[in-house]
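Section handout, structural biology tutorial.
Before the tutorial, make sure you can parse a SMILES string by hand: atoms, branches in parentheses, ring closures as digits. In the record below the ligand is magnesium ion, and the chain has 223 residues. In the tutorial you will relate the predicted structure tokens back to the input. Do not try to memorize them.
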Amino acid sequence: MLDFKNVEYSYSNQPVFSELNFELSQSEFCFLIGKSGAGKSTLLQLIYMNILPTQGRISFDEYDSRTIKPRNLPLLRRKLGIIFQDFKLLKDRNVYENLSFVLESTNKSSGEIKKKVNDVLTDVGLSHRRHSMPNELSGGEKQRIAIARAIVNDPILILADEPTGNLDPETSLEILEIIKKINLRGTAVIFATHNYELLKSYNAKIIRIEGGKASKVVIKPKQ
Ligand SMILES: Nc1ncnc2c1ncn2[C@@H]1O[C@H](COP(=O)(O)OP(=O)(O)OP(=O)(O)O)[C@@H](O)[C@H]1O
Ligand SMILES: [Mg+2]
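Predicted structure of the complex:
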């Protein structure tokens, strides 16, 4: 479903990836680890095709980095759900509007939008907060809304860039549990994190980015 083949990427003359090979199957969960500056966020941006490889190729679903046309980027991105460390909710809209906004560009009826938004809010356990403004929510609640927003389009892949970076350990585990549940329903996930405790909580593939390359890491799951 996702395949990086000999990907090279540089910011001006600063190389980040030299020969990056990495693949992800449908419904797979993968933790992405690596030192600060190793290139985790850059790897996620390459999937989003916000940036394109300087060499090599990335294929995601039916899209290929060598042939993608700008007009197809919105279609590609509709297949992705993206979650950031700092939530990125629209501050001037309530929870419901933050989610319905994503569906406005699709051709869903208002009834369908309402049902879908309520369904994803139920998935993250926050349907009772649908009228709240983002500044009335805790960090963990904001992240749950951001997860709901990421799944409202039924993506095939979720990209989570340090989604627990601003949260306490207990809330971080709750966020992982929600993302795990979504993964078990069949959505693939790439979860970039510095939180090594989380790695022990889910027996999933771990990829470390180091020296411009990706390698598999094996750790023992928690007993
Ligand atoms: N827009 C940019 N322009 C130039 N260099 C950049 C840009 N974004 C990132 N870099 C550089 O690319 C390298 C990889 O950065 P990236 O943000 O992908 O790392 P990261 O693994 O996500 O780090 P962190 O764990 O701190 O989030 C770093 O050396 C960084 O300084
Ligand atoms: Mg990063």
